[in-house]
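Allow me, if you will, to draw on your knowledge of protein folds for a short while. I have a record of one protein: its chain in single-letter code and its fold written as discrete structure tokens. The full record is reproduced below for your convenience:
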Amino acid sequence: MDWTALQTTAASCQACGLCAQRQHSVFGAGSLNADWLVLGDAPGDAENATGQPFAGDAGRLLDNMLKAVGVSRAGEGAQGAYLTHATQCATPDARNPAPEELRRCAAYVSRKVALVQPRVILVMGRFAMQSLLQSTEPLGKLRGQVHHYQGVPVVVTYPPAYLLRNTSDKGKAWADLCLALQVVQGGS
């Protein structure tokens, strides 16, 4: 599927119960020629309302984090990022996505990776990490190292919403972001 067909399919998807409360499919946004693909957990209320990934305060924090390493949603190549989530729809009452919901959306994530062909995937959150890497390890154990998905290097870190509540972990997230930058620059 090309981008248009994939986005149309996601917008009308009824593969699980998340579609029942969907205002908008939160497909993704950013550069389709990006070196960075940022994958978060399930979209929240702000994303459901706007249809845009990483909206609200968490989105502003992510934008600032990316800006600090010279990357933006609007950039191209090494300066660009494509942002998406592990599920295409928000979960009711901001609950954690169920394993079956993550499985149903895994094909969308896989196809986005194939279409963008990023040089690094920055996975932000436990459920995104579990879905992409098929791991049940705690997020903290997978941070600080490079993993791979479909041959693409993957760096795992904390989600922006978590960092807003747990500012003491921002230093760890910064180290992860620097590791992802090193990967893009060819150093790992």
